[in-house]
Write a structure and sequence with these properties.
It catalyses: L-serine + acetyl-CoA = O-acetyl-L-serine + CoA. By secondary structure, the chain is α/β, with parallel strands linked by helices. Helices cover 30% and strands 16% of the residues.
Length: 200
């Protein structure tokens, strides 16, 4: 990626934050005061180093420094698309083999974790425009289809189709329920307001 392309990507990240967060008043506020954006920027530099011969250790050290500064841990080997927004940021963990599509939004406390100790694809893949609610956990090499929503506190251990609404422990997909069902009625906004205990 050229320097101009990198700068364009950074500007996109700022616009994504302003699009997703109504509290973001100006671009300069996002640049100076949004740790989720800072974490993504740190990742973008670390990822470039990770893919360069002989720079894996500096990439890891940079990612750990960014973790210290922001409370967000993104392994430099993860593959992250454009316009990722991490709201609040604190406690987010994204593993080495995780893959994230474009226009994804993660809230604080989200874990994209692994279950295997082998050197293999062991972290989740999120499609485009996925929203993952606060403190949700997605484990293993599962795939979450585009335009899906993962409710706050959910624990996802299985693949999910496009447009899924995943809630509970373990998570199940409510997107196929009738729109007038009581469970669908509780989903005013699953990224924010869902109580996963209801679905255990």
């Amino acid at each position: 990626m050229s320097r101009s392309s990198l700068l364009a990507r950074l500007r996109e990240d700022v616009r994504a934050a302003r699009t997703h967060d109504p509290a973001a008043r100006t671009s300069i506020e996002v640049v100076l005061a949004y740790p989720g954006v800072h974490a993504v920027w740190g990742y973008r530099v670390a990822n470039r180093w990770w893919r360069s011969p002989g720079l894996k250790l500096p990439a890891r050290l940079l990612s750990q420094f960014v973790r210290f500064l922001t409370g967000v841990e993104i392994h430099p080997g993860a593959r992250i698309g454009r316009r990722l927004f991490i709201d609040h940021g604190m406690g987010v963990v994204i593993g080495e083999t995780a893959e994230i599509g474009d226009d994804v939004m993660l809230y604080h406390g989200v874990t994209l974790g692994g279950k295997s100790e082998r050197r293999e694809k062991r972290h989740p893949t999120l499609g485009d425009r996925v929203v993952v609610g606060a403190n949700a956990t997605i484990l293993g090499p599962v795939s979450i289809g585009a335009d899906s929503m993962v409710g706050a506190g959910a624990v996802v251990v299985k693949d999910a189709p496009t447009g899924a609404i995943l809630v509970g422990i373990p998570a199940r997909d409510l997107s196929q329920l009738p729109p007038d069902s009581a469970e669908r009625g509780a989903l005013t906004d699953p990224a924010f307001y869902l109580d996963p205990a209801i679905y255990i």
